[in-house]
Structure prediction request, 164 residues.
Amino acid sequence: MKFVPAPYTSYSVVKNDWIDDNGHMNSGYYPAAFDDGSCAMFDDLGLGWDYTTEGTGSIFILSASQDFLRELLESDRLRITTWLVTYDKCRVHIFQELYHADQGYLAARAEFMFVHVSLKTRKVMDMPDKALHRLAEIQAAHEGLVSSTFVGRQINLDWKSSNG
Prediction:
């Protein structure tokens, strides 16, 4: 078995065009930062952008939930962690955390459900066997390591902000 990072860790930076009139990173760009952060895991699965350009299939976001905990400013360096929560033959469920890389604080967290889609038919299709095998290895390595109450929670007025 090939080494499995637990979690996958990627780095990015808050770009100038991500800044809004409040002087901080606009909420619309957090998905871009999380997307950058998920590339390491999808590349490891063989389902990254190289796979997409081959024209057979790709990974699309099916569902997302995000919390914004602390603001980020232009040029802040980011550290993004990615954990596999679960998967099936055509879907991948991940949990991510976005940290200020220099100050270490948790700025945002997100949960995403991805679906594997045929680029020819634009319909859901099973992932390649090689990706499913690697997902099983990742699941074994990540099992029990995601303890955040954020994963799978419902949004309602009883929700209380916490880092858990």
Notes: The mean pLDDT is 93.
